[in-house]
Amino acid sequence: MLIALECKTSLGMKALFDLIASRPRPVALFGGMCTEVNEPVAMALKYWQVVQLSYAETHAKFGTADSQE
């Protein structure tokens, strides 16, 4: 499933919850380029053990695997 969204956190979280509720549940999610959407989505995904990959995220918070959040 491919969903293109504007850089709005509310739309990103709604799409995430719809995706998590679907079957089969994803093992990875390709994120976008907006930090304001990627950050809350990544924080929520850890509770479902889903990996988020982002092709354009440049924020330092996502630069290391050991970032604490």
From TrEMBL:
Superkingdom of source: Eukaryota
Keywords assigned by UniProt, alphabetized: G-protein coupled receptor, Glycoprotein, Receptor, Transducer
Biological process (GO), any one: gamma-aminobutyric acid signaling pathway
GO molecular function, one term: G protein-coupled GABA receptor activity
Keyword check for Transcription: no
Keyword Glycoprotein found: yes
Any one of the GO CC terms: G protein-coupled receptor heterodimeric complex
Protein's name in the database: Receptor ligand binding region domain-containing protein
